[in-house]
């Protein structure tokens, strides 16, 4: 039983350098009311968005503002770059991966023009959400600042 727990435990790292905030503080009800799932958010200092897990790219939004990943243990993660950025129709984003591609922790996923997002989007706050969180046990870390690929945000494993 214990070995099953350790095999299926997923470590989720910071996909961005920035200030980590609770999902409840995201200024958008879709996220702060956990309609998309539970998680955290980062107020980015800049830089590319990187993979927080080892997994597979399962979603690339047409507007390039969101990317979905699935881990080997079935945990599904959505990284939503900024708020109300769908209206930018892909401007400010350069996707560096393809759907179906395997990714590793720290691998660059999306290049972002943060100045463009600040000027044209609602907010650069970036939620990192476990979209199947109702099927997972999630343990949050108490980190206040994220460093790509180093800072552990949370762990998740099937219930």
Automatic annotation (TrEMBL):
Subcellular location: Cytoplasm
InterPro entries: Dup_hybrid_motif, PTS_EIIA_1_perm, PTS_EIIA_component
Pfam families assigned: PTS_EIIA_1
UniProtKB keywords: Kinase, Phosphotransferase system, Sugar transport, Transferase, Transport
Domain of life the protein comes from: Bacteria
Protein name per the record: PTS glucose transporter subunit IIA
PROSITE patterns with a match to the protein in the record: PTS_EIIA_TYPE_1 (PS51093), PTS_EIIA_TYPE_1_HIS (PS00371)
UniProt keyword annotation of Transferase present: yes
Kinase found in the keyword field: yes
Organism this protein belongs to: Psychrobacillus mangrovi
Ranges of residues in domain PTS EIIA type-1: 28-132
Primary localization class, coarse: cytoplasm
């Amino acid at each position: 039983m214990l070995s099953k727990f350790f095999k299926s435990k997923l470590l989720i790292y910071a996909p961005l350098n920035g200030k980590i905030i609770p999902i409840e503080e995201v200024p958008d009800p879709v996220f702060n009311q956990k309609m998309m799932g539970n998680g955290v958010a980062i107020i980015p200092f800049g830089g590319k968005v990187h993979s927080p897990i080892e997994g597979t790219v399962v979603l690339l939004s047409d507007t390039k503002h969101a990317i979905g990943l699935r881990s080997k243990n079935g945990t599904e993660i959505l990284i939503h770059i900024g708020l109300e950025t769908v209206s930018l129709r892909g401007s400010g984003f350069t996707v560096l991966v393809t759907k179906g591609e395997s990714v590793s922790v720290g691998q660059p996923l999306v290049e972002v023009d943060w100045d463009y997002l600040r000027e044209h989007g609602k907010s650069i706050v970036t939620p990192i959400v476990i979209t199947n969180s109702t099927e997972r046990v999630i343990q949050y870390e108490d980190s206040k600042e994220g460093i790509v690929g180093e800072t552990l945000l949370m762990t998740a494993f099937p219930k």
